[in-house]
Design a protein that fits this description.
Largest sheet: 5 strands, antiparallel
CATH class of the largest domain: Alpha Beta
Radius of gyration: 18 Å
Shape: globular
Low-confidence stretches: none
CATH topology of the largest domain: C8orf32 fold
Number of domains: 2
Distance between the termini: 11 Å
Number of strands: 15
Length: 267
């Protein structure tokens, strides 16, 4: 699978703050060569200070202090060529095996053992992807922000983050380190922020997307973490902040073929 030579992404958030608040935004692509970008936040037409806070996976939070009232955030980036392959750290093999808020791998261990016993590596990833994809329906608005992998499996439907949580929980239950990644996804329909799983196989992080809604070779990493609690595109501290509107765009000069079975790194 050949990655596109160029990918262009854009996001606009329209927000309304009930009072003074600090925004933590995870909408910028992961840092890397070939990235040119612009991020602006304005309130009443006045630019606000934006402070960058890097994380250990190459992602970045951007912090903005806002007053009461409407706020607009606009981000645009172009990515030329492939980004750096995700690095592996010794802590990954422990941190991403533990159960987490939305990925209850301990409770799902009997299911994982019954369905995937004896499978390893690429064969296991393909089996988990196919199993989750065949049991869940992708339905916009069908899940709550508090739903985890168990609620998703019982409800048999969800959106991308729900598919990713169930994939991650099942892989962790089979002793494969797995995590959630928020991405820009050229080819996604309907267009939005997207979430996929990453699994550590043969020393490399491999993308698993049980939704099959976008080619993995075109995805652009935003944030990486244990689950959606670590990868939310907006976190507010202080007064309540409402999302009143948003728009996401991601395009590539070419969309690679992807049948979902090959081992793919997020580049």
């Amino acid at each position: 699978m050949t990655a596109p030579r160029r990918r262009d992404v854009r996001a606009r958030l329209d927000l309304d703050a009930d009072g003074p608040a600090r925004l933590a935004l995870a909408i910028a692509v992961a840092k890397g060569p070939g990235v040119t970008e612009r991020l602006e936040a304005t309130q009443d037409g006045i630019p606000l200070e934006v402070r960058e806070l890097p994380d250990r996976h190459g992602g970045r939070l951007h912090l903005v202090d806002v007053a009461p009232g409407p706020v607009r955030v606009e981000y645009a980036a172009s990515v030329e060529g492939a980004l750096d392959a995700p690095t592996t750290e010794p802590l990954d093999g422990i941190e991403y095996l533990r159960p987490s808020r939305y990925c209850e791998s301990d409770a799902l261990a009997p299911t994982a053992d019954a369905e995937f016993a004896g499978l390893q590596g690429a064969e296991l990833l393909a089996a988990v992807r196919g199993w989750v994809g065949s049991r869940l329906d992708y339905v916009l608005g069908s899940s709550l922000p508090t739903d985890g992998a168990i609620a998703t499996l019982l409800g048999r439907r969800g959106v991308c983050r729900d598919f990713a949580h169930l994939v991650v929980a099942l892989l962790r239950a089979r002793d494969v380190p797995a995590r959630v990644v928020s991405v820009y996804a050229p080819g996604l329909e309907p267009m939005d922020f997207h979430a996929v799983a990453e699994a550590l196989v043969d020393g490399s992080w491999r993308v698993v997307d049980a939704t099959g809604l976008a080619p993995r070779g075109a995805l652009v990493r935003i944030a990486t973490g244990r689950d959606a609690a670590d990868t939310a595109f907006l976190t507010s501290i202080g007064a309540a902040v409402s999302l009143t509107g948003y728009e996401v765009m991601a395009v590539a000069d070419a969309l690679p073929d992807d049948d979902g079975t090959a081992l793919v790194e997020l580049r």
